[in-house]
Amino acid sequence: KAVVSTQSTGNAENFGDESEWYRNLIKPSWNPPSWLFGPVWSTLYALMAIAAFLIWRVTGFLKKPLPLAVFWTQLIFNFAWVFIFGMAHELGWAFAEIICLWLLIVITMVLFFRVINVGSPSSCFPTS
């Protein structure tokens, strides 16, 4: 069994799936292969940017700021998790942070759906 240290190293070379720390973690059988993370996360962030742009087109930053404020907050939490888990190796804090992140993602989705009816194809295209 692998022993997981929660001691923070703060070294960039100990980051990611190439680090000895990550390789020694006991992972579930359904853990995706390392090569899949790049394309999946690139696609995910591109789609998130498109969603935020569509919301911004409707609300701007001042007309209805809450949806984009929550979006930016969840994005900060998304980036923070990588450092809490991948660099600091703080598994307890990473778990707590990802629970908050999931909650923020759900709130973002609800707020975005209230702005744009995604059931309507015309909601994705300019009307003027």
Can you offer a commentary on this structure?
The chain is mostly helical and 128 residues long. 58% of the residues lie in helices and 0% in strands. It is built from four helices and no strands. It has helices at residues 20-23, 37-59, 66-87, 91-115. Helix 3 (66-87) packs antiparallel against helix 4. It is elongated, with a radius of gyration of 18 Å. The chain starts with 19 loop residues before the first helix and ends in a 13-residue tail after the last helix. The relative contact order is 0.13. The model is unreliable at 1-14 (pLDDT under 50).
Give a topology summary.
Layout: H1 20-23, H2 37-59, H3 66-87, H4 91-115
Helix pairs in contact: 3-4
**Termini Cα gap:** 61 Å
Poorly predicted runs are: 1-14
* Number of strand elements: 0
H-E order: HHHH
Number of helices: 4
Mean pLDDT: 83
Radius of gyration: 18 Å
Report the structural category.
mainly alpha
Question: Can you give the helix content as a percent range?
Answer: 55-70%
Task: Tell me about the largest β-sheet.
Answer: none
Beta-strand content estimate: under 5%
What gross morphology would you assign? elongated
